Amino acid sequence: MVGTAERTASGGSYNCGLPAPPISERVQIAALASDMAGEKKVFGFEEVASHNVTKDCWIIIAGKVYDVTPFMDEHPGGDEVLLAVTGKDATNDFEDIGHSESAREMMDKYHIGEIDASTIPVKRTHVTPQQVPGNQDKGADALIKILQFLVPILILGLAFAIRQYTKSE
């Protein structure tokens, strides 16, 4: 009904007969309202992983999504460090560095939402690479080692023998 505060399912009239805003605007308004209410958006892994360039960089740490784009130039390790951890859970990388308490507090202003844990790819189990068959001729290796030991001794013995022989004449 035109002139009511209701809107139809088809997006008809909205608040006193005005047309309903486009869906994209309604989504943005809903997101803004949830942010203002203290709720954070839940992102899928692929969406977060797609933000992987200097001008648009998101990272995941401890299940939280951070838009670190404004921090790229200020990061003490440089932007390469942040770019290297896009597209994966950077929690271990973050913890291994041993960030200060002030760095952890600074993260709050970059926090934009949570990661949907069900969208994170299953970690691949480590598969030990098959051993490449090497030189199976152990006899040749042993001979080389013996010669490396004996040749200097033989040279030293020969030098000693020549010295003794020339000394006696």
UniProtKB/TrEMBL annotation:
Domain Cytochrome b5 heme-binding: from-to ranges: 40-116
InterPro entries linked to this entry: Cyt_B5-like_heme/steroid-bd, Cyt_B5_heme-BS, Cytochrome_b5
SMART domains: Cyt-b5
GO MF, one example: metal ion binding
Superkingdom of this protein's organism: Eukaryota
A Pfam family reported for this protein in Swiss-Prot or TrEMBL: Cyt-b5
Entry's localization field: Membrane
Chief localisation class: membrane
One GO cellular component term: membrane
Keywords (A to Z) from UniProt: Heme, Iron, Membrane, Metal-binding, Transmembrane, Transmembrane helix
TM segment ranges: 142-162
PANTHER family linked: CYTOCHROME B5
Protein family per UniProt: Belongs to the cytochrome b5 family.
Protein name: Cytochrome b5 heme-binding domain-containing protein
Organism, scientific name: Zizania palustris
